[in-house]
């Protein structure tokens, strides 16, 4: 078993770079780097997601709520909640999913 992630960085959308940092069947940690104006399209998934803003500024939408976050902010997105974001200043999000997002592997 390897304890060091060797997953490549990929670009799932314009202006977005994603890299799986670590994973197990029960948990996954993922880095997302955003350029200004890049968006994470509205979507939902069965995983519970925790997001930590390492750098930058983002406008998030979860369900009917919209809010801005910056460095040091964090929040949880419930399972099946429709959510997305818009990058207002270049930055990096660290997302944790439970269980693992097999679609990212």
TrEMBL record:
Domain Cupin type-2: 32-94
Domain of life of the native organism: Bacteria
Stored SUPFAM superfamilies: RmlC-like cupins (SSF51182)
Protein known as: Cupin
Species: Marinibacterium profundimaris
